[in-house]
């Protein structure tokens, strides 16, 4: 957050999941890890500026003042000291911004009875769309009446169930770090696929995850037959992803120039920035002629060769 015209405005969002080893950390270590990770991630924005960290975990207020830290905490302390942040305690209930970011609305609000918004699908929307869908309406009819006349071929038909008049597919979910469990995926009719794609990828809660992450998160909650293909196509056409991800800085091959025959034939220019204080930075424009550089380099090499032989 950065103060602008008297109000705190977010300038960037970030989050990540814990890896297998980090899952075993104590709670305070996980909170400290979040601080260190965030400082490193936003280094290019915050370095050299006063940094205030708002936390609802009180032990953090004094943790990095500790003198007898050891192991990874001592290593983290060195990183934190680079930024000299101040820690401010806020109550857990007041920490709504962090809570909003750490809960995936796409997964928690998939079926909502509230007024429809961009972020949510209502029970009524899904009920109507499933019954208007040429294929799923026949599956629903089969489940309700047992009549399999005109029933199209649907793989794993026995996995489909009706709950509260809504069609779900029961499937076994196998997580990377958790035991397998039975989940019920909401069956998405074709007309709702574009809305769900936006919900699982485009919203601020989803924050444009990559193809595999979007698919794996979507599979926790939703099912439709062409999920992978539709998600891949959607992300391929996503303007935000195209602007901010992928090969933003394409690899530029090293250029070769003809060796200059005399001084000042070819000039090289570079800009060096040196932070002097928290807010003042010394910029040095360096200009040198390539001939001199090559001459010194060759002389140095020549002297080194002389030493060796
Ligand atoms: Zn995107």
From TrEMBL:
Organism whose genome encodes this protein: Petrolisthes manimaculis
A Pfam cross-reference name: RT_RNaseH
| Cross-referenced InterPro entries | DNA/RNA_pol_sf (IPR043502), Integrase_H2C2 (IPR041588), Retrovirus_Pol_polyprotein (IPR050951), RT_RNaseH (IPR041373)
* A GO term for molecular function: RNA-directed DNA polymerase activity
| Keyword line | Endonuclease, Hydrolase, Nuclease, Nucleotidyltransferase, RNA-directed DNA polymerase, Transferase
Residues in domain Integrase zinc-binding?
188-245
The EC designation for this entry is 2.7.7.49
**Domain named Reverse transcriptase RNase H-like: which ranges?**
1-83
Tell me the SUPFAM superfamilies matching this sequence.
Answer: DNA/RNA polymerases
Q: What is this protein called?
A: RNA-directed DNA polymerase
Nucleus in keyword set: no
